[in-house]
Design brief:
The structure is a homodimer.
Chain A: H1 11-24, E1 33-34, H2 36-43, H3 47-60, E2 63-66, E3 70-73, H4 78-102, H5 105-123, H6 127-145, H7 148-168, H8 178-189, H9 193-209, H10 222-225
Antiparallel strand pairs in A: 1-3, 2-3
Helix pairs in contact in A: 1-3, 2-3, 4-6, 4-7, 4-9, 5-6, 5-8, 6-7, 8-9
The structure holds a DNA duplex.
Domain HTH gntR-type (chains A, B): 9-76
Protein name (chains A, B): Transcriptional regulator, GntR family
GO molecular function (chains A, B): DNA binding; DNA-binding transcription factor activity
Chain lengths: 236, 236
DNA sequence: GGGGCTCACATTGTACACAGACGATGCGAG
DNA sequence: CTCGCATCGTCTGTGTACAATGTGAGCCCC
């Protein structure tokens, strides 16, 4: 009824993915209010669809659903942030171990490709997309590990990590230095589990070190954040 | 308007908890179809509420949502089961470490109380409730650990574990022997991290050992192959 | 002049009605 | 007798209307 339904996913998926990406790319700041009606108007769908997307994001922890008071982008406290990073450390370790055992040549090539794109984004100053790709590298590593529950957990943790970085980042320094990603891939290729896990742990440390648990400055202009998709449905 | 069940949580929570518990107590067998209308009639709520509960259960992995074809209780394959148990092992390890550091005397008493109830249930033959309480022990341990994301992950994994046990259990043997739980608490009280983690890993082993994933041999006896999903909607 | 209360508005929560899809059953052809 | 096809029925997907709740502004009282 609305414009052509993409077979690659229902409108549910489309709405969810757009909001999810917006948070990952830090175009949606923590504490931004997510009005159902406003989002429905932006995406051209009814509140029913929006509500499902928000519900899912709520379960993943990136959106806070306050009963009768609407949804906002989550803004983790310093303590919650520590919990999230600790959990992520545990998951990443498990994933690195598994990925080291199972990585195929094709998958390693794919990972390298991913890091290359990430590097390119940061190089040309596209910070938002770079952050998202950095997260996707970790997610791709999880897929190599092949453990479905762990993939889901990591997905949730990565998106929350993005929020934390948005809130507590010290300066505009590089995030996941691609260098660390590359060395991790090398260890994977060599099937050196100990080195790989060690690198991943150091990688987590370096992310930690770039954070400073102070306050951030949120900005909430829903219209501007999604302005890029108003004319067309999607952009590469 | 409806019954006065307000303060103990919205009806959403009530419906979700009932279905969740039914799965944990194995009163709902894997592959059981969950009709929205039927559930709505049972709980006296509209399909909207049922749908939310099913959606949440779907995200947690205990219910399979098939587009346009309704929801069924998930029935993990042997491979999925292995992934779930591996993931659970990783999470339980992390939780045990944390709990060992943080457990207070009051919390340890609470854990002992939980094990006592569990033991009582198995003793009087209330297998379903016993299984649920066994899961709640692990969940309570996670709360002691105090890491919110990990609690959520474990919740999902425990409920799926219950399904796996229902599907692949070798015999009617005891599940989480309370003995193992008790010894774990002792190690916690002594703040002996290494012993506690070791006990938890052995505990996971013993659960594994009670399962039999080998039955995928091609059999011409259709009746036997699918016997576990035939008339067993409820059986207590 | 400040604090508390009340009323009105806006936004979310719930239910229902319509539309579409999938599965089942019955008929007909080979 | 079996297989394929068409039609029917049931269930899910979606949108919309209504109800309830939280919020904020304005007013009254202190």
């Amino acid at each position: 009824m609305r414009s052509a339904k993409r077979r690659s996913g229902t409108q549910d998926e489309r709405v969810y993915a757009h909001i999810f990406d917006a948070i990952l790319e830090q175009r949606l700041a923590p504490a931004t209010k997510l009005s159902e009606e406003a989002l429905g108007a932006i995406f051209g769908v009814s509140r029913t669809v929006i509500r499902r997307a928000l519900s899912r994001l709520g379960h993943e922890g990136v959106v806070l659903l306050r009963p009768n008071r609407g949804a906002v982008v989550a803004s983790p406290t310093a303590d919650e942030a520590r919990q999230i990073f600790h959990a992520r450390r545990m998951i990443e370790r498990a994933i690195t171990e598994l990925a080291c055992e199972r990585a195929s040549a094709a998958q390693i090539a794919e990972l390298r490709q991913c890091v290359a794109e990430e590097h390119a984004c940061f190089a040309r100053g596209d910070r938002g997309t770079g952050i998202r790709l950095s997260g996707e590298f970790h997610l791709k590593l999880a897929e190599v590990a092949g453990n479905v529950p762990l993939i889901g957990f990591l997905r949730s943790l990565i998106s929350q990590s993005s929020l934390i970085i948005a809130l507590y980042e010290k300066r505009n320094q590089a995030h996941c230095s691609d260098e660390e990603h590359l060395r991790l891939i090398d260890a994977l290729e060599a099937r050196d589990v100990d080195t790989a896990v060690g690198l991943m742990m150091r990688h987590m440390d370096s992310v930690d070190d770039k954070l400073d648990f102070e306050e951030g400055a949120p900005s909430d202009d829903l219209q501007a954040v999604f302005s890029h998709l108003l004319p067309s449905a999607r952009k590469a």
